[in-house]
């Protein structure tokens, strides 16, 4: 690749068939980062279809640092680069500076301190010889040039949405990283989520004030749902002279971050917006896994173990453990796979039914006959339609517009009790454990702490280098800068058609609940939807 193509502005990829190459330069200068994103999305979609001919090769166009558009063709096959915006895309005259990192003792003897501007991270690592190379993201890490001088930086950090182990570690590492690596002193904490920008006072954050916070669960800055008002938030950012915004939160929060970035760009102000993805549900698209997830799965083991101890100590013991997972069953699936004490795992993605052949009641009875006890792990979002029918409830929403769930754990406990007592005339011992908030209110474990450090430092390097409107996260174990829209356009769910769910079924030997017509109908639709929203779930 041509070293002169080291770009700071978003590179553009266009189909040779769609744009005559002679007019490329003229066309590209008028493409905004927004329309660029849309353009790439269109092309990306068609590339996923294997029927696309290899003649429809992509050529890529980059805007190099001197502003000249250059064109090169990837020789190894079709290749899509989804870059993140850069401050220079709307502030072209912004001066750059030598990165001070090399002068810090931490990096003094590092051989390759800086990430090459040519480094990209592939979203797909398993490829076939003849298939396109697929989507790539800009590799995260320190850059040779930065677009902020240390004394000029006035950063802020905000945390939004639900709790998750490790939030405090991320806050701590942003503060310490900015200060130690880049000599930044001005770091503000926005309290109470997005609404804190315009309704609360800020708190000054220093390495000393955040030194111990990683040992506590929760968020040192407090959080909230709802209250996102883009104009008020950006007004506040401008009024306070903030020029780097670090936003920690889930899919809703990242949508809010995208709105802030767009407003900042519209106003043409020098503010870098960096998103750090957080969610206990692990439902954020593109990234390998969200921080705190492993800690939560580990904590869930304690609840499962307690249920198992309880039910094996009584006759016909049936334990139910309800875990978090609004729309996705990752925590339940992983906790089940890790534990081996679980007989059946129920998640929102996999429909189930209670009565008749192949149903849950039949399976419970079979396990009680075989083992004398059994444990069910239930994701809170599973079977919501049944619960709603039973309770004749209308769907309520939280301040962010998320559906409020009904207690499927209580519902299932009651259903099993009724069935065995009234229909089967069998005495059973039900134990229902609901550790929902306990698994996310704890501090992060060792590996999540390290992961949080990497996220924080990658976000800092990206913002200092002038990237903006990005989410940072590991893609196939390499940290990358991902356009925010890519992580918000879909939510990760457990794919029943993937091998991971098959591994769980093979491990628990539970029914797949596919023998009921109603479920079969829904299941078929689910598979179609899965393919339509094809994305990689890569744990
Ligand atoms: N589409 C949106 N545009 C702008 N802001 C949004 C949007 N969706 C949600 N937000 C804001 O983002 C914040 C957090 O959203 P939400 O409560 O959905 O949590 P989340 O970030 O998805 O995290 P979690 O996974 O814990 O639920 C809220 O302040 C909400 O107002
Ligand atoms: O904290 P709240 O508002 O009760 O929300 C709980 C929800 O948040 C999540 O933990 C996601 O953050 C879901 O698993 C759960 O349904
Ligand atoms: Mg969410």
Automatic annotation (TrEMBL):
Pathway(s) annotated for this protein in UniProt: Carbohydrate degradation; glycolysis; D-glyceraldehyde 3-phosphate and glycerone phosphate from D-glucose: step 3/4
Single GO molecular function: 6-phosphofructokinase activity
Entry's EC annotation: 2.7.1.11
Phosphofructokinase domain boundaries: 155-461
UniProt cross-references to Pfam families, sorted A to Z: PFK
Assembly description: Homotetramer.
PANTHER family: ATP-DEPENDENT 6-PHOSPHOFRUCTOKINASE 1
Record-given protein name: ATP-dependent 6-phosphofructokinase
Lineage of the organism: Eukaryota, Viridiplantae, Streptophyta, Embryophyta, Tracheophyta
């Amino acid at each position: 690749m041509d070293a002169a193509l080291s770009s700071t502005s978003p590179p553009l990829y266009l189909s040779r068939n769609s744009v005559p190459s002679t007019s490329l330069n003229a066309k590209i200068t008028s493409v905004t980062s927004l329309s660029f994103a849309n353009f790439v999305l269109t092309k990306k979609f068609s590339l996923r279809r294997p029927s696309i001919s290899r003649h429809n090769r992509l050529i890529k166009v980059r805007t190099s640092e001197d502003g000249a558009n250059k064109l090169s063709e990837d020789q190894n096959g079709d290749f899509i680069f989804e870059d993140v915006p850069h401050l220079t895309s709307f502030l072209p005259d912004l001066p750059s500076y030598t990165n001070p990192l090399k002068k810090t003792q931490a990096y003094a003897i590092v051989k390759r301190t800086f990430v090459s501007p040519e480094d990209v991270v592939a979203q797909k690592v398993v490829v076939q010889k003849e298939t396109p190379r697929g989507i790539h993201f800009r590799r995260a890490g320190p850059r040779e040039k930065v677009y902020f001088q240390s004394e000029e930086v006035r950063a802020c950090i905000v945390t939004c949405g639900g709790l998750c182990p490790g939030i405090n570690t991320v806050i701590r590492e942003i503060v310490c990283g900015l200060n130690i690596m880049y000599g930044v002193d001005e770091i503000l904490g926005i309290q109470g989520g997005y609404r804190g920008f315009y309704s609360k006072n800020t708190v000054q954050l220093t390495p000393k004030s955040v030194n111990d916070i990683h040992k506590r669960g929760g968020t040192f800055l407090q959080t909230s749902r709802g209250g996102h008002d883009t104009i008020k938030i950006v007004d506040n950012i401008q009024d306070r002279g903030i020029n780097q915004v670090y936003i920690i939160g889930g899919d809703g929060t990242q949508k809010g971050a995208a709105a802030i970035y767009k407003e900042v760009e519209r106003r043409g102000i020098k503010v870098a917006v960096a998103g750090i993805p957080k969610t206990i549900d692990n439902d954020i698209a593109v990234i390998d896994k969200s921080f705190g997830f492993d800690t939560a799965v580990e904590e869930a083991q304690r609840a499962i173990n307690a249920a198992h101890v309880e039910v094996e100590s009584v006759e016909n013991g049936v334990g139910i453990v309800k875990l978090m997972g609004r729309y996705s069953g990752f925590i339940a699936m992983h906790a089940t796979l890790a534990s081996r004490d679980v007989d059946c795992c129920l998640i929102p993605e996999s429909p189930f039914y209670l009565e008749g052949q192949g149903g849950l009641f039949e399976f419970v009875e079979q396990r009680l006959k075989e083992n004398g006890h059994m444990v069910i792990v239930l994701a809170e979002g599973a079977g919501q339609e049944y619960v709603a029918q039973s309770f004749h409830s209308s769907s309520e929403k939280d301040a962010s517009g998320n559906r409020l769930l009904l207690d499927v754990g209580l519902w299932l406990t009651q259903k099993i009790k009724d069935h065995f007592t009234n229909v089967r005339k069998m005495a059973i011992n039900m134990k229902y454990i609901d550790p929902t908030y306990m698994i996310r209110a704890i501090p992060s474990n060792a590996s999540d702490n390290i992961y949080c450090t990497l996220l924080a430092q990658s976000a800092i390097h990206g913002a200092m280098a002038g990237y903006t409107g990005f989410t940072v996260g590991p893609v196939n174990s390499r940290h990358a800068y991902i356009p925010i829209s890519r992580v918000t356009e879909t939510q990760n769910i457990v794919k029943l058609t993937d091998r991971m769910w098959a591994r769980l079924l093979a491990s628990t030997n539970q029914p797949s609940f596919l023998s009921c017509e109603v479920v079969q109908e829904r299941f078929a639709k689910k598979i179609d939807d899965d393919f339509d929203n094809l994305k990689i779930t890569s744990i």
